[in-house]
Amino acid sequence: MIGTIQVIHFQSCQTRDARFSQYYVQGQQLYVQYCSNCHQKDGTGLGLLYPPLSQSDFVDQRFSEVVCSMRKGLRGSMLVNGREYNQPMPGIPYLTDLEVAEITTYLYNTWGRNRGLVTVEEVQQISAACAP
Ligand code: HEC
Known about the structure:
With 132 residues, the protein is mainly alpha-helical. The chain has helices at residues 2-34, 36-39, 57-61, 63-72, 97-107, 120-127; strands spanning 78-80, 83-85.
């Protein structure tokens, strides 16, 4: 009985790890395709035009808004690391929940972050509460 429980537990860990790798790799590709034009491949942004994602207190502290921003875009003035940015970021409304989860998993597990897997369910929950 105890043996059975251990096997099940082991398998679910393996599955989660495999999913993490898949999301991370897919997320990196999607990041390059959809985000790196402005934020750069290494996430450092571009001068005062495009804020950084690699070192960013916004990314570190405002997880839900980051998830929402991918489909909804961003507008208005904002502070990132104490610097003001004020350029509209276009949203990509056709990104699927899975794609947003993959990009978010990449973003939060690279450049020194290690939040772990961001699931589709988390993205759905957060997205239901995004500002219109
Ligand atoms: C056309 C250029 C452009 C693209 C493409 C773009 N962004 Fe942005 N992004 C911006 C701008 C400009 C801002 C600042 C918005 C403001 O001033 O209100 C910003 C702000 C942000 C912020 C909050 C500030 C920060 O630096 O932490 C995050 C997070 C973000 N973008 C993530 C993404 C992600 C993820 C993608 C791809 C899905 C993406 N962006 C694609 C231009 C872009």
